[in-house]
Amino acid sequence: MKVDKGTDDALLSHRGSVKVTITPCQPKVLTHLPKRPPVDIAFTDLNYSVKEGSKNNVKTILKNVSGRLKSGELTAIMGPSGAGKSTLLNILTGYKISGMEGSITINGHERDLSQFAKLSAYIMQDNQLHGNLSVEEAMNVATALKLGTQISKQEKTQVIQEILETLGLLEHIKTMTSNLSGGQKKRLSIALELVNNPPIMFFDEPTSGLDSSSCFQCISLLKCLARGGRTIICTIHQPSARLFEMFDHLYTLAEGQCIYQGSTQQLVPFMATLGLVCPSYHNPASFIIEVSCGEYGDYVRKLVAAIQNGKCDIQAGKPFPQSEQLNNADVDKKINNMQTATVSESGQGNNILAYAHNDIVKEPTAPTGDGVVIPIELSPVDSDKQPGVTTNLLDDTLPTSTQRYGTSELNQFWIVLKRTLLFSRRDWTLMYLRLFAHILVGFLIGALYYDIGNDGAKVLSNLGFLFFNMLFLMYTSMTITILSFPLEMPVLIKENFNRWYSLRSYYMAITVSDIPFQAVFCVLYVTIVYYLTSQPPEISRFIMFLSACLLISFVAQSVGLVVGAAMNVQNGVFLAPVMSVPFLLFSGFFVSFDAIPIYLRWITYLSYIRYGFEGTALATYSFGREKLKCYQVYCHFKSPSTTLEELDMLDADFRLDIIALIVIFLVLRVSAFLFLRWKLMSQR
Ligand SMILES: Nc1ncnc2c1ncn2[C@@H]1O[C@H](COP(=O)(O)OP(=O)(O)OP(=O)(O)O)[C@@H](O)[C@H]1O
């Protein structure tokens, strides 16, 4: 029997007697992807607890759940809000590891997280894409990182073309990621992970935020991927009947326990055996959610017992697990009625297990418009690997290579560095606003302190100018990093978890990437103010002055990295300037070293502003500078040594200031890396 596209009601009214077939359009075979093994996942007695509150109360989120997820199947993890779907997904992906008990096996062997990470991809709910890259650029980066030198450049281009064509993104290849629609972003997220052909793909709420047509396209695509022999697992809230039909396998959670595991087609008959008859015209997906929310009475415990908390797997053609509910006469009657109906319509003998949606013929429902053009052939999943998308590419052996990433760390560094430089070039705030600010403030300060550098009567103002330089360079380089770095975190978490690159390569790349820009801005600013304010014209003094200023801006940028790595933007924007106050107070500008109480002097050694201020003051007034001009009767600071004496810098050593700044810079960079690593680990 044939049912038109979109006629869910008609489809539902024939539940139990029809079969879903989506007629293939032009087959698209991903021929260039690397071969990967098919992977089955099983988990047994999985427990997950978290500590909560000041008394460290233990909250158990997953309670002894078991289950299995097979290759070639599209699995939905469903359940009411708070049931533990995301938690289960995070545990299965290996994203959450602490607080978990139980066993997870891969093709019958205990899961080795490192090996598993090479086989799986986790596509998180919010896509986590870089908006400043085009689809093509994003794909190029993913291919370069994930495939490395395994294949030639030409083959990489073919892989990208094929994947984009298959996912209906080829016509958007030049579009910036930020301009893609929600569905296209989702498909791009999938395309990026597909380049190394992971045999297991996890999706957290892949349909969230999509309209019904895009949802259908998205699930069709996942179905296609599953048909290629992959294990596709996604959490989903409450799919429409039409979407629900497309899943092969359903895993339902309620209150952290499994209430159903098995074929989607067997859900309704299985529930009926427990006295839960899904009304006609009712979406089975909604029905099980309603049941798990207790709308039909307290059935959760019965369902958990019947399915043995996930140890049973309801399959067509296999008997249901024994349940005391089956003895209930009313239930028997209901089942018998359903059996009779099924037998008479499908003519498949007298087995209730034959009751399914097996005979619905629905055509054509391949996605249309700008959507996915992959052919979708829905047929029983029991035949393990259907010919289709990439089945023939799957290798049977699990990888044994010890290589953690697709390419060497040096390559990762170059690729991420190039990408970051591209972002910087395209980021208006990061680049042009910063450039504009440095030039504008440079001229403003130049105008304010114009020509005071060699005037013996204006030395105090000149010291104010030196201190302001420190302040300006510190805040501009620190705040921009505090504001921009935390925004990178979600993408970093996703890409690092999916083994695109190591944290070390990423960190090196972002550390190096901003240094040239910061250096150019600083040189521009210092050049403008130095000459407008008539500081000593010797080139050696200018270089010393500039190097102290450059180091201050690099150190402040490192402070920004530490703060950005350790906390979110809101806290960082408040805390970083507040934490800088002691360093400013102890810089030697407000109070000379002699005047500081002994027990507080140690703070001056930590104050990088002190070293910067001292460095610029020495470059200006030390190294035998001749007396300044005096246009008044008396200029107290006419002699540069008087100024240095007043600042308690007569014995100061410029080289020590530079060394101190370099040491602080290195310590902060290493600390930022450790914070970042801690933050990534603490999420898990
Ligand atoms: N770190 C945590 N500390 C305390 N409780 C937690 C923690 N993580 C999860 N939970 C709780 O565990 C339960 C399951 O959370 P989870 O996010 O897995 O639910 P979900 O089924 O995915 O819900 P939704 O569909 O609303 O996203 C919720 O009650 C949640 O509050």
UniProtKB/TrEMBL annotation:
<feature type="transmembrane region" description="Helical">
    <location>
        <begin position="462"/>
        <end position="485"/>
    </location>
</feature>
<dbReference type="InterPro" id="IPR050352">
    <property type="entry name" value="ABCG_transporters"/>
</dbReference>
<keyword id="KW-0067">ATP-binding</keyword>
<keyword id="KW-1133">Transmembrane helix</keyword>
<dbReference type="GO" id="GO:0005886">
    <property type="term" value="C:plasma membrane"/>
</dbReference>
<protein>
    <submittedName>
        <fullName>ABC transporter</fullName>
    </submittedName>
</protein>
<dbReference type="InterPro" id="IPR027417">
    <property type="entry name" value="P-loop_NTPase"/>
</dbReference>
<dbReference type="GO" id="GO:0140359">
    <property type="term" value="F:ABC-type transporter activity"/>
</dbReference>
<dbReference type="InterPro" id="IPR017871">
    <property type="entry name" value="ABC_transporter-like_CS"/>
</dbReference>
<dbReference type="Pfam" id="PF01061">
    <property type="entry name" value="ABC2_membrane"/>
</dbReference>
<keyword id="KW-0547">Nucleotide-binding</keyword>
<keyword id="KW-0472">Membrane</keyword>
<feature type="transmembrane region" description="Helical">
    <location>
        <begin position="506"/>
        <end position="530"/>
    </location>
</feature>
<feature type="transmembrane region" description="Helical">
    <location>
        <begin position="573"/>
        <end position="600"/>
    </location>
</feature>
<dbReference type="GO" id="GO:0005524">
    <property type="term" value="F:ATP binding"/>
</dbReference>
<keyword id="KW-0813">Transport</keyword>
<comment type="similarity">
    <text>Belongs to the ABC transporter superfamily. ABCG family. Eye pigment precursor importer (TC 3.A.1.204) subfamily.</text>
</comment>
<dbReference type="InterPro" id="IPR013525">
    <property type="entry name" value="ABC2_TM"/>
</dbReference>
<dbReference type="GO" id="GO:0016887">
    <property type="term" value="F:ATP hydrolysis activity"/>
</dbReference>
<feature type="transmembrane region" description="Helical">
    <location>
        <begin position="658"/>
        <end position="676"/>
    </location>
</feature>
<feature type="domain" description="ABC transporter">
    <location>
        <begin position="41"/>
        <end position="280"/>
    </location>
</feature>
<dbReference type="InterPro" id="IPR003439">
    <property type="entry name" value="ABC_transporter-like_ATP-bd"/>
</dbReference>
<keyword id="KW-0812">Transmembrane</keyword>
<dbReference type="InterPro" id="IPR003593">
    <property type="entry name" value="AAA+_ATPase"/>
</dbReference>
<feature type="transmembrane region" description="Helical">
    <location>
        <begin position="431"/>
        <end position="450"/>
    </location>
</feature>
<feature type="transmembrane region" description="Helical">
    <location>
        <begin position="542"/>
        <end position="566"/>
    </location>
</feature>
<dbReference type="Pfam" id="PF00005">
    <property type="entry name" value="ABC_tran"/>
</dbReference>
